[in-house]
């Protein structure tokens, strides 16, 4: 009977004690969250209750397993498994606690500052810091697990002796990965590009959706995702439309006939912009910027608060101006001149006839008197 009650009391007691401590801790965190609603820290800490209970249970079982006297022939293997579970759950708990602290700091900063650019910059830095912390904790936990095996401890001396050569080989082999990691840190703390920025890379316009230590994802206007290494943004030029403010100036071009009513077009542009909600009212203008033998180039400048609105303003102005010209001033649209050129007096026409005889030959015969 003692052989049955002892393991049941040890194992069952550890599990029950773990559940009681976990329940009590979760209850305290819930009350603290209700009492301090201005900070999300206590609610975020509750996400770590599962790894917290695993740490408690593994620690209790690891400390009391010898008293249970169960499967003594496998005592070493079971102890090794409990140690690995304890290390893994402890690393999981540390990551959850770090994430709760970082997210709380970011939420406080976002509430205190109204500048979207600064908030996006901090968000980018916070996300990369969490990835670095998770990577460091994971590496330390994996190394701690490996060192629990006697064979790994015995090989430690030889591993340390060859660490220099292995470091050189690993550095050469992982040169691209390391450069991307350092580029990711440079982007995060250099305020070069942030999550939510509107950028143009390789002729593609989109919004930065995700930044990691090795790659960056841009969501284009047509819902495609472009993934590229972060080293691209530290080695090649790109356009960042959100840096220094989101306000933008857009350009609309028309190729029109030389007889186009430019002054009336300026008035019509003003009326179109007044009826366009996307226009921010800062500025507008219209001018003739170039001419060709057949047409002239008319350029309109419009403004908006961000890249999405400037696109809306441009397409609205272009469409409504062309429609207005077609309905009220059709002569202003580009035309192809198919009329014969008049030959000046005293010169011969291309067919050799003098003084426009060839032109008169193509004219219909005159009727009437005279």
Describe this entry's structure for a reader.
The structure is a single chain. The protein is of the alpha+beta class. Helices cover 57% and strands 15% of the residues. It is built from 13 helices and 8 strands. It has helices spanning 2-35, 41-45, 49-68, 75-112, 116-147, 150-154, 156-161, 163-173, 175-190, 232-235, 262-274, 307-328, 357-362, and strands at residues 198-201, 204-211, 215-220, 225-229, 239-240, 248-256, 279-291, 296-304. The chain is elongated and about 115 Å long. Mean pLDDT is 76; it is low at 156-163, 168-175 and 353-370.
**Unreliably modeled segments:** 156-163, 168-175, 353-370
> Helix proportion of residues, in percent?
55-70%
Average pLDDT rating: 76
- The number of E-state strands comes to 8
Largest sheet: 5 strands, antiparallel
Topology overview:
Elements: H1 2-35, H2 41-45, H3 49-68, H4 75-112, H5 116-147, H6 150-154, H7 156-161, H8 163-173, H9 175-190, E1 198-201, E2 204-211, E3 215-220, E4 225-229, H10 232-235, E5 239-240, E6 248-256, H11 262-274, E7 279-291, E8 296-304, H12 307-328, H13 357-362
Antiparallel strand pairs: 1-2, 1-5, 2-3, 3-4, 6-8, 7-8
Helix pairs in contact: 1-3, 3-4, 4-5, 5-9, 11-12
């Amino acid at each position: 009977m003692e052989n049955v009650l002892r393991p049941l009391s040890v194992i069952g007691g550890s599990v029950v004690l773990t559940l009681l401590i976990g329940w009590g801790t979760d209850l305290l965190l819930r009350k603290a969250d209700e009492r301090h609603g201005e900070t999300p820290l206590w609610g975020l800490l509750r996400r770590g209750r599962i790894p917290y209970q695993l740490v408690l249970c593994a620690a209790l079982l690891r400390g009391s397993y010898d008293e249970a006297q169960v499967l003594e022939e496998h005592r070493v293997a079971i102890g090794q498994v409990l140690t690995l579970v304890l290390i893994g759950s402890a690393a999981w708990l540390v990551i959850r606690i770090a994430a709760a602290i970082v997210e709380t700091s970011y939420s406080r900063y976002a509430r205190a500052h109204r500048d979207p650019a600064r908030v996006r910059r901090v968000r980018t830095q916070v996300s990369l810091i969490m990835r670095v912390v998770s990577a460091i904790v994971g590496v330390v936990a994996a190394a701690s697990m490996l060192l629990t095996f006697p064979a790994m401890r015995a090989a430690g001396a030889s591993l340390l002796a060859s660490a220099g050569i292995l470091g050189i080989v690993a550095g050469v082999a992982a040169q691209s990965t390391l450069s991307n990691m350092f580029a990711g840190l440079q982007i995060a703390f250099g305020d070069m590009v942030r999550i939510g920025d509107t950028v143009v890379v390789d002729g593609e316009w989109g919004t930065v959706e995700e930044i990691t230590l090795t790659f960056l994802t841009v969501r284009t206007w047509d819902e495609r995702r472009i993934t590229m290494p972060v080293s691209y943004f530290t080695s090649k030029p790109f356009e960042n439309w959100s840096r220094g403010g989101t306000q933008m100036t857009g350009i609309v071009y028309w190729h029109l006939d030389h007889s186009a009513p430019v002054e009336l077009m300026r008035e019509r542009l003003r009326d179109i912009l007044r009826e366009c909600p996307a226009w921010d009212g800062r500025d507008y203008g219209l001018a003739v910027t170039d001419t060709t033998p057949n047409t002239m180039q008319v350029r309109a400048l419009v403004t908006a608060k961000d890249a999405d609105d400037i696109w809306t303003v441009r397409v609205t102005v272009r469409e409504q101006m062309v429609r207005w010209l077609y309905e009220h001033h059709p002569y202003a649209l580009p035309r192809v001149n198919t009329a014969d050129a008049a030959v000046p007096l005293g010169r011969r026409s291309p067919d050799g006839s003098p003084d426009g005889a060839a032109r008169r030959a193509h004219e219909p015969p005159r009727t009437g008197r005279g």
